Amino acid sequence: MVLLAALLIGLVAGVVTGGRLGNLANMNFRWPWLVVAALVVREAIIVTPLNRMEGVQYVYATALTALIAWTIWHMSRVRGALIVAAGAALNLTVVMANGARMPVTPTLAGSLVERGHAGQYVVMGSGTNINWLGDWIGVSGPLGGAYSPGDAVVALGIAIVAFFATRQGPAAATKLGETSGRIGSYPP
Q1: What are 140-187's pLDDT values in tens digits?
Q2: Cα separation of 136 and 129, whole Å?
Q3: What is the Cα–Cα distance from 54 to 125, expressed in whole angstroms?
Q4: pLDDT tens, 85-142?
Q5: How far apart are CA 100 and CA 88, in angstroms?
Q6: Could you tell me which residues come within 8 angstroms of residue 79 by beta carbon, excluding any fewer than 6 positions away?
Q7: Sorting pLDDT into bands at 50, 70 and 90, what band is 54?
Q8: Hey, where are the domains in the chain?
Q9: How far, in Å, CA of 40 to CA of 81, rounded?
Q10: Higher confidence at residue 171 or residue 53?
Q11: Is the torsion defined by CA of 33, 38, 39, 44 positive or negative?
């Protein structure tokens, strides 16, 4: 939920400072379905009985890795993508250090405390690693939940991407987009 809030904050900030929501149509993403698939995998593991299956956490880790690769691939196209990739890499680091599971502090783990682990989550304790990168940041209210420092960095990156996306006009025309009669004629 915090990522959606970051997106909305970035969009509003962009529009308030002179950007346009219509400029979002000018963004040029390759393979956008990969992002959707990675997010669907994450949510499906959380909210379905899949979270009881052993090994499903590796599917999540693979989806997170694909999301990082996609984001890095788009760094030259999208301002702020590097920050999103850095936050996701922080999350992947702690996840891989804990058997493909994200540690969650017991005070924020809810029913996870009784089970020990579910899907891509595990209760934080002496047996988990790099706990300072795990989900220990508690947010109350409508954005409520447990978040990691990596989630905070991803949220910042998403807000930056959204801000600049509203302010980005159409791509400049290139020689390849011109008619053949103009290409090669000198002087321009």
Answers
A1: 888 778 999 999 999 999 999 999 999 876 655 555 555 444 444 445
A2: 13
A3: 20
A4: 999 999 999 999 999 999 999 998 887 777 777 778 899 999 999 999 999 999 988 8
A5: 14
A6: 160, 161, 164
A7: confident
A8: 2-8+32-167
A9: 20
A10: 53
A11: positive
Peptide bond into 187 cis (omega under 30): yes
Question: What pLDDT, on a 0 to 100 scale, did the predictor assign at position 69?
Answer: 93
Give the 3-state DSSP-derived string for the chain, with helices as H, strands as E and coil as C.
CHHHHHHHHHHHHHHHCCCCHHHHHHCCCCCHHHHHHHHHHHHHHHHCHHHHCCCHHHHHHHHHHHHHHHHHHCCCCCCCHHHHHHHHHHHHHHHHCCCCCEEECHHHCCCHHHHCEECCEEECCCCCCCHHHCECEEECHHHCEEECHHHHHHHHHHHHHHHHHHHCCCCCCCHHHCCCCCCCCCCC
Q: Are 64 and 37 in contact (CB under 8 A)?
A: no
The span from the CA of 47 to the CA of 64, in Å, is 17
Query: Per-residue pLDDT tens for 63-84?
Result: 899 999 999 998 888 889 999 9
CB 163 within 8 A of CB 19: yes
Phi and psi for 139 in degrees, rounded to 5?
A: -120, 130
Distance CA 115, CA 97 (A): 20
CB contact burial 24-43 (16+ within 10 A = b; e otherwise) = eeeeeeeeeebeeebeebbe
